[in-house]
Amino acid sequence: LGYFNRLREMSLESQKTQLFCKPLSRTDINVRLSVPMESLDAFEFAEGEFKVDFKAIDIEEKPWRFCLSKRENDVHPKPVLSAGWLAYVQKKRLQKDDKLLLHVERKEEEEKRYRIQVLRKAFKLCGSDIWVDVENLKKDV
């Protein structure tokens, strides 16, 4: 119940936009996270820079630092998360086919914040996949 109350409070307090939802590949888990190009506009790269550091908050309100980089002078920038990503993968025990959700939220009079969440398929119910936050799964271990 507390989990759902936190989600409801977050949605009431802020304007939240999903940047992407992506099933994780083996490369995402073992090397770096490939980020969809459509989400690049949500990050503020300094003029002439090809990297940006940012902080994302998980469902437990823990901040995680990441570095998003893109190719220099290329029509297809191929953005990736590298620095900080593998530590997150290890701590959360992420697996191939988990779903990563990245949101950006903007509260009144505050700068934007990023939220990160990972879901894992738990079971099927009436033919539909039921996904659970990996934080809830870790507590059962």
From TrEMBL:
<keyword id="KW-0238">DNA-binding</keyword>
<keyword id="KW-0539">Nucleus</keyword>
<keyword id="KW-0805">Transcription regulation</keyword>
<dbReference type="InterPro" id="IPR003340">
    <property type="entry name" value="B3_DNA-bd"/>
</dbReference>
<dbReference type="GO" id="GO:0005634">
    <property type="term" value="C:nucleus"/>
</dbReference>
<protein>
    <recommendedName>
        <fullName>TF-B3 domain-containing protein</fullName>
    </recommendedName>
</protein>
<dbReference type="InterPro" id="IPR015300">
    <property type="entry name" value="DNA-bd_pseudobarrel_sf"/>
</dbReference>
<dbReference type="GO" id="GO:0003677">
    <property type="term" value="F:DNA binding"/>
</dbReference>
<keyword id="KW-0804">Transcription</keyword>
